[in-house]
Specification:
The complex is a heterodimer of chains A (286) and B (263).
Chain A: H1 5-12, E1 25-34, E2 41-51, E3 56-60, H2 67-75, E4 82-87, E5 90-91, E6 99-102, H3 114-119, H4 129-142, H5 158-170, E7 176-180, H6 188-204, E8 208-212, H7 216-222, E9 225-229, E10 237-242, H8 251-254, H9 258-280
Parallel strand pairs in A: 3-8, 3-9, 6-7, 7-8
Antiparallel strand pairs in A: 1-2, 1-4, 4-5, 9-10
Helix pairs in contact in A: 4-5, 5-6, 7-9
Chain B: H1 3-26, H2 33-40, H3 43-56, H4 58-90, H5 92-107, H6 114-121, H7 125-149, H8 153-161, H9 166-184, H10 186-203, H11 209-218, H12 222-250
Helix pairs in contact in B: 1-2, 3-12, 4-5, 4-7, 4-10, 4-11, 6-7, 7-9, 7-10, 10-11, 10-12, 11-12
Chain lengths: 286, 263
């Protein structure tokens, strides 16, 4: 692959050492039960997962296996019924202030323009409105929406809304990125473009990423490590696979490499039985 | 069907109605004209009276009074509705405790309060404002309550993940959401503010459109009653038009119902 401008930029960016010993996210024997502790629905249990700073982890699994539940636990939106969540070595209480969250559904405030939506993310940090708007403008330019700053979400396409949400998350410069099938509702082409955009932005400033997806190819193309979950209820992690593909990657091109096929086959072997199990439980388990 | 044809048909319906009215009251078809004209007046008389009212300038004072009452009733009703809607939506216990009383108060036909308000606030504008208030308050209250309760959980979770505290959530999420619901009922609530004003005037006052109609009725001046109704209709249409303009300005972020949302 010819060295591109993006390539050179990535080589320049050096991983910032953030308290070297503590993982960015650490889930230890986490279980999450909805409803009463006895007789409730256990979504996940015995989850042990660590994400180092700067590491891109993709979590795959059949529908309804509780992938999003893990993200919500890491975000502090959900309290695990058992086990511990540690963020950079400190136990998590309440919301995880060091994490940004990219939701699957539209989460932008529909009554704010793209610019206002991104700028408002800096208000909790005490940034002045003028400075926030200048930064928001810059971020919207970086996600390719310079011409759409004054549009309201309903005037943007699904992919454009995701770009705004991405800028809204990244402008706060969170140390951990939690993404819940963020490109799920988009068409295949837009997903590729968004995937490359994400990799570009991430390479320029590496954060720990937990990226949930049901698309194995997307997971391999993006991540350093792919975590496979079993079918729910009481889903667990059944395998972790390092992805030995070099960076920088192009989402479309990387799929043509022999190593990609190799790892894909390896992961799919373990994932297939779980997917079949999930289907056997009835299609409704989504 | 194109727009011109539609307008022509709409005008035809209006003219047809006026013609029918004219023919039935100008010629002794159903009853002697003296009798029909006493009960139904004639379209020409009514229009002439409307014209005279405006030309003499006599009506402006009454319109102004009714307008002031309507605006005050709306302002107080909306203010109270927003305040209590927010409070109840954010305080579960309050909402639960007061639920039966609010339902009971809302079920009460507000007209029966008019005599009480006349007693409390006199025959001036404030008794009418109070009546309009009781009508507007509940509409706005229920809408704001709903608006705060039904904030999209994803938008809320996202805002919280952005680090917003309770005050910032109120300002950026709950408040705009509640306002959306309130504005969606803006036509209804402004309409009810006007109903409160006119009914209040009708039941006891010395000025306003309701008073004009009541005055005409009490001397069996059917022409005056109809003229008052016509003026009231024009007044309502104008107010509704202004409300539509305000609504369009405030809800600019909302998708228009007929266009597709692709930018």
């Amino acid at each position: 692959m010819a060295p591109s401008a993006a390539h050179r930029r990535r080589e320049r960016s050096i991983l910032m050492p953030v308290s070297p010993n503590a993982p960015a996210v650490s889930l230890r024997s986490v279980a999450i039960t909805f409803g009463s502790k006895v007789g409730g629905y256990t979504a996940v249990q015995h989850i042990d997962l660590t994400a180092s700073p700067g590491e891109f982890i993709a979590i795959v699994g059949p529908t309804g296996c509780g992938k999003s539940t893990l993200l919500n636990a890491s975000a502090g939106l959900l309290k695990p019924s058992d086990g511990e969540v540690e963020i950079f070595g400190a136990p998590l209480h309440g919301l995880n202030g060091r994490a940004g969250y990219l939701f699957q559904q539209d989460a932008l405030m529909p009554w704010k323009t793209a610019l206002q939506n991104v700028a408002v993310a800096l208000e909790p940090k005490g940034v002045s409105r003028k400075e926030a708007e200048a930064k928001a403008r810059d971020w919207l330019r970086r996600v390719g929406l310079a011409a759409f700053v004054d549009r309201y979400p309903h005037m943007l396409s699904g992919g454009q809304r995701k770009r705004v949400a991405l800028a809204q998350m990244l402008i706060r410069d969170p140390e951990i990125l939690l993404m819940d099938e963020p490109f799920g509702p988009l068409d295949a082409q837009t997903r590729q473009i968004m995937g490359n955009l994400l990799l570009d932005l991430w390479a320029a400033n590496r954060k720990a990423v937990l990226f949930v997806t049901h698309d194995l190819e997307e997971a391999i193309a993006l991540a350093d490590r792919v975590v496979v979950m079993s079918a729910g209820p009481a889903a667990g992690i059944i395998g972790e696979f390092p992805v030995p593909l070099s960076r920088p990657r192009d989402i479309a091109e990387v799929r043509l490499e022999p190593a990609f096929h190799h790892i894909h086959k390896e992961i799919w072997t373990s994932l297939r039985t779980e997917v079949q199990k999930a289907y056997a439980q009835g299609e409704g388990a989504s | 069907m194109n727009r011109l044809k539609l307008i022509l048909l709409q005008v035809a319906v209006g003219l047809g109605f006026l013609l029918l009215w004219h023919v039935l009251t100008a010629y002794p078809i159903l009853a002697p004209t003296r009798q029909t004209q006493f009960f139904f007046s004639t379209p020409l008389d009514v229009l002439t009276r409307v014209w005279k009212e405006f030309a003499s300038g006599e009506i402006w004072r009454h319109l102004w009074i009714t307008l002031v009452e309507t605006i005050l009733a709306f302002a107080f009703g909306a203010g109270g509705g927003i305040l209590f809607g927010f409070l109840f939506a954010r305080r579960e216990l309050l909402a639960a405790v007061f639920d039966p009383y609010i339902k009971a108060a809302n079920a009460l036909p507000r007209v029966v309060l008019a005599p009480i308000f006349a007693l409390w606030f006199g025959l001036g504008i404030w008794s009418k404002v109070a009546l309009g208030f009781t009508l507007v308050f509940f509409i706005v209250f229920f809408n704001v309550y709903q608006g705060v309760r039904e904030v999209s959980p994803v938008v809320l979770a996202n805002a919280r993940m952005l680090g917003m505290n309770e005050r910032q959530l109120l300002r950026h999420v709950y408040w705009p959401s509640a306002l959306t619901w309130m504005f969606s009922s803006l036509h209804t609530s402004v309409g009810f503010a006007l109903v409160g004003a006119v009914v209040g005037e009708y039941l006891g006052s010395s000025a306003g459109l309701g008073y004009k109609i009541h005055e005409a009725e009490s001397v069996f001046d059917v022409t005056g009653v109809f003229a008052g109704m016509v003026i009231l209709s024009i007044f309502v249409i104008l107010i509704d038009f202004v409300v539509t303009l305000i609504e369009r300005r405030l809800l600019v972020w909302r998708p228009a119902p007929s266009t597709n949302g692709q930018g």
